Amino acid sequence: MGIDEWIGRLPKVELHVHLEGSLRPATLLALARRHGADLGAESAEDLEGLYRFEDFGDFARLFLAGLDVLRGAADFADATAALAAELAAQNVRYAEVTTTPVQHHRRGVALEEYAAGLDEGRRRAREEHGVEIGWICDISRESEAPDSHLTVGFLLGRTAPGGVVGLGLGGVEEGFPPEPFASSFARAKAAGLAALPHAGETAGPESVWGALRALGADRIGHGIRCLDDPALVAHLAERRIPLEVAPTSNVALKLVKDARSHVLGELARAGLVVTLNTDDPAYFRTTLNDELRIAHDLHGFTRRALLDAQVAALEASYAPAATKAAVRRELRDTGL
C-alpha cells in the first residue's frame, strides 16, 4: 500500500484546529450569501484567490471576513458540520476544536446564540459524520482584558456549550505574556478544565515557561521556540508535555522559511511528545493528511512514527473514555 493510501486510512486525532480558521471557500461563500455579505467573489473558485496571502496582514484580513459571516446559531452549526465533513473524509475520529468567544461577543453576537450553534454543530458532527468534537474556548490575548474573565466566566456559566474540554490562550504573543491570565486558568482548572495555551509560536522560551509556571499548561500549542532553551526542552521531555505542532501554519506565517526547514524532526529527535495539526486549515490550504505527508517526506517520520504520533495525540486528548477506547483499538489494529 502506498504512503498516501496508508495515511488516508490511518485513524486520526487532531488537537489544534480553529473553527474560525476552517472556513473553506464554499462554506464562506454560502454563509456570506445567507447574510448578503459581499466578499468580492461570485463563486468558490473566484474566492480561492483570496486564500493566498503574502503576510500576516493579508491573513488577518481574510480571517476577519470569515468572522463577519458567523452571525447566528445556524452559521456556527453549519461551520462546525462543514469542518466535521472534512475531518471525516480524512478518517479523523476525534478533534479538539478551538473557538474564541470574545471575537464574536465584541461583534454583538449573543453568547447564548453562539453556544447554541456550537451545540448543534457538535451534534451534527457526531450524527452526520461520525466525528466526536471537544471544544477548547480560548482567550484572545490582545482582545480580552485579563481581569475581565469574560471567557472563563462564559465557560463556567449556565450558557456554556457542551463538550468543552479546556481553556486556551491565543492571539499575539509579543507584548501579551501569559502571566496576567493566570487567574482565569486557575478558575478553569479548579472546574476540571485543561489548560491548553498557545506558546512559543512567535515568542521565545519565556512564553512557554510562563504558560507552564503561571497557567499550569497541560499541553503547549505550537511550542516550536522551545528549542532555543535546552533546559526547557529537557523539562518538556521529562514531564511528557505534548506539543501541538502545525508545520504548514508556521510556514504560511513566515515563522520558518519552508516545510523542509521546519524544526519538526528536531523536536521529535529531542524526545518531545509531538502531535501533528493543521491550525487554520482553510486559510493555510492544508489538511491533516498533508501534515502527515510532510512529516513523512521531509522529516524522517516512518509509518511507525506517524502511527505513534496519532497514539500520542489520542492519549494527550480529553476525549470521552469510550471514544478513547474505540480509537485506541483502531490504532492498535492498524497495519504498517
TrEMBL record:
<keyword id="KW-0378">Hydrolase</keyword>
<keyword id="KW-0862">Zinc</keyword>
<feature type="domain" description="Adenosine deaminase">
    <location>
        <begin position="11"/>
        <end position="332"/>
    </location>
</feature>
<dbReference type="GO" id="GO:0016787">
    <property type="term" value="F:hydrolase activity"/>
</dbReference>
<protein>
    <submittedName>
        <fullName>Adenosine deaminase</fullName>
        <ecNumber>3.5.4.4</ecNumber>
    </submittedName>
</protein>
<dbReference type="Pfam" id="PF00962">
    <property type="entry name" value="A_deaminase"/>
</dbReference>
<keyword id="KW-0479">Metal-binding</keyword>
<dbReference type="InterPro" id="IPR032466">
    <property type="entry name" value="Metal_Hydrolase"/>
</dbReference>
<dbReference type="InterPro" id="IPR006330">
    <property type="entry name" value="Ado/ade_deaminase"/>
</dbReference>
<comment type="similarity">
    <text>Belongs to the metallo-dependent hydrolases superfamily. Adenosine and AMP deaminases family.</text>
</comment>
<dbReference type="InterPro" id="IPR001365">
    <property type="entry name" value="A_deaminase_dom"/>
</dbReference>
